Amino acid sequence: MALRDQDKELGMHRPIGRRDFLNGVAIALGSSLAGGFLPDLECVAEGAEQFAQDKPGYYPPILTGMRGSHDGSFEVAHAARDGNFRSNAGSLINTGETYDLVIVGGGISGLAAAYFHRKQDPSARILILDNHDDFGGHAKRNEFRVGGRMLLANGGTVSIESPFPYSAEARSLLTELGIEPAKFEEKFDDGKVYKGLKSAYFFDKETFGTDRLVIGGPAPRGREGAVSWSEFLAKTPLSETVQKDIVRLQEAKADYLPGLSSDEKKDKLSRMSYKDFLLKLVKVDPGVIPFYQTRTHGLFGVGIDGVSALDCWGLRFPGFQGMNIAPGPYRRMGFTAMGEATPEKEPYHFHFPDGNASIARALIRKLIPDVAPGHTAEDIVTAEFDYSRLDRNNSAIRIRLSSTAVRVRHAGDPASAKEVEISYAREKRTYNVRAKGTVLACWNMMIPYLCAELPDIQKQALRYGAKVPFVYSVVAVKNWKAFHTLGIQRVSSPGMYHTGVGLDQPVSIGDYKCSQTPDEPILIRMTRTPCMPGLPERDQHRAGRGELLSTSFQTFERNIRDQLSRILSAGGFDPARDIEAITVNRWPHGYAYEYNPLWDPDWPDGLRPCDIARKRFGRIAIANSDAAAAAYTDQAIDQAYRAVRELA
Ligand SMILES: Cc1cc2nc3c(=O)[nH]c(=O)nc-3n(C[C@H](O)[C@H](O)[C@H](O)COP(=O)(O)OP(=O)(O)OC[C@H]3O[C@@H](n4cnc5c(N)ncnc54)[C@H](O)[C@@H]3O)c2cc1C
């Protein structure tokens, strides 16, 4: 079929919300930056500006199309990185503002820093700057209206769980916001809403030779509807040899490292990838690899070629069942990871319908109480936020969006200066504010470009990590009849553009009701991890980032429509008819980089790059989950707590 006809069939001509327009007002302020920020740098009289976020109707969660690191959010930072940002061109506009604290980065860490600082000093005046058009950092809210109904999704950070025990500070922050995940467990009603719907695999012709949907995966024996591995594999297009090797891998109780102690095995497994474990120790046919390759994408951002066999043992991947490795936590690059068969801590499934964006919203409502009505963790979900109240003159806490910090320096000698100057770019201009201290809760690798005065060794450490790129695509559809007809709720598609596809996890909380019947609109979640198998992990992330920034929304849209059509059309799905809106949450700088035993040295305690990178420098403290080299919400909060204490 000619591409044009194919596009028509997929519905590429259908008008879906793909532009950042709101109430008829273009709020894609970034595109003006993208168009020519640098040559246009100008100086205007202080106070003459009115910014998009202050205007009525400004409500970014409702925007669809390319979100996450949306156009306009990163160009200034990239110009600063490339040395093209002329911060001294023209004159800086001095706003005349002086704060107790300026925080760079309005993610969970930056917001938590404001919260902790206010607890310490209830009269403190705080300014938070963020380069995005919305607050929350990775904890972003996607809001859709389909058939008059509100549908919510997380644009990034979804769950409150962490492999680490929550610290007292992080736990009490949640408690003070009224969030008690274990208590909210019953609000997650997976079993009721999707009763009888199974998980499935989709084998695509490009990877596996033919397009085939196989419904129902192998489940542990004894579980209702369980099929054995051989029964399951017989339905797949995998060759007989591959099937036999998968059954052996899954079921044989073999010791592939005989003669070694449990600790010696752990050490060896920590230095080989799971892919090498499969090929070299289990000696499976190479045709087995595509079936498992992307299984580590969601947690690590790379395939099994980039994740140690020990980590895969920790995740209960197959192959270790006969190896007699002692269960329990194990040390992974300076922190303790959970091992196979370790009793899970607080195994709650609850998450807010918009993920941890509800935590960000709850924090902001605590800091600026009249920004939204209500006061509970239930009512935060549907509370209407008035963005024009985020940055008011008379407010002690101000949140300034679409504002990229470009320079942070002490006003004088860092050893004795009483103030810090923070310059930021916003809507074609550059502004200056002052503060008694600053918390940089932005990404580590940005900080050397902001703070020329930091010691070189610290700059080097800040640059070490490479954030992990991800895409969370969200597709609003008129109904989920096709899923119901096929009897599926989530599909693993290891060879396709998005490797995971599934119905939104059903959570009803407060006034928010998730879709209850197949006739109702719903959100489909799709995940993509751009990486380049075979390269060291950090290079894979850099390559993935490059790919993301050069992929158009149209390419995403075509891939999404094609993939949904191929998986669901047997159930009656028609992408041209059924898709109402698409949001691609693009995160070229996603998870904090976690050290990888395959490529990174095992630094002594206190000497990991993140330990050196987060050192306070004069009145500048450093937060963000990068500062912990651990991509979790509790770590972002803990780092905020530490940074605020360092400045106290
Ligand atoms: C797709 C995705 C899914 C995730 N899922 C989970 C999950 O389920 N559970 C979990 O615990 N964690 C998850 N994470 C990890 C997540 O990063 C952390 O949990 C947490 O949200 C990080 O918060 P943060 O404030 O440290 O960083 P961020 O959320 O990254 O916030 C930092 C902010 O600083 C801004 N910034 C950077 N430079 C500048 C500058 N120069 N000027 C102004 N602003 C700047 C950034 O743009 C960003 O908005 C996920 C991450 C991603 C990307």
Folded structure, characterized:
The longest helix is centred in the C-terminal third of the chain and has 16 residues, at 553-568. The chain contains 23 helices and 21 strands. The N and C termini lie far apart (66 Å). The model is unreliable at 18-45 (pLDDT under 50). A hairpin with a 2-residue loop joins strand 10 and strand 11. It is globular. Among the domains are: 42-60 and 72-137 and 354-464 and 606-647, 3-Layer(bba) Sandwich (FAD/NAD(P)-binding domain), CATH 3.50.50; 237-337, no CATH class. The chain has an eight-stranded mixed β-sheet with strand order 3-20-16-19-18-17-8-9. Strands 4, 5, 12, 13, 14, 15 and 21 form a seven-stranded mixed β-sheet that branches. Strands 1-2 form a two-stranded antiparallel sheet. Helix 4 (108-120) packs parallel to helix 15 (357-367), helix 4 packs across helix 23 and helix 5 packs across helix 23 (633-647). The chain has 648 residues and is an alpha/beta fold. Flavin-adenine dinucleotide binds next to helix 4, strand 13, strand 16, strand 20 and helix 23. Flavin-adenine dinucleotide binds at residues 77, 104-110, 129-132, 137-139, 156-159, 162, 404-405, 441-443, 446, 470, 472, 587, 590-591, 624-625, 631-633, 636.
Measured by DSSP, the beta-strand proportion falls in 15-25%
The profile of the biggest β sheet is:
8 strands, mixed
Q: What proportion of the residues is helical, as a percent range?
A: 25-40%
Q: Let me know the number of strands.
A: 21
Low-confidence runs: 18-45
What ligands can be seen in this structure? flavin-adenine dinucleotide
The gyration radius over C-alpha positions equals 25 Å
How far from one another are the termini? 66 Å
Q: What is the class of the domain at 42-60 and 72-137 and 354-464 and 606-647 in the CATH system?
A: Alpha Beta
| CATH-defined architecture of the domain at 42-60 and 72-137 and 354-464 and 606-647 | 3-Layer(bba) Sandwich
The CATH superfamily of the domain at 42-60 and 72-137 and 354-464 and 606-647 turns out to be: FAD/NAD(P)-binding domain
Overall average residue pLDDT? 90
Number of helices: 23
As for the CATH topology of the domain at 42-60 and 72-137 and 354-464 and 606-647, it is FAD/NAD(P)-binding domain
Overall 3D shape:
globular
Spatial order of the strands in the main sheet?
3-20-16-19-18-17-8-9
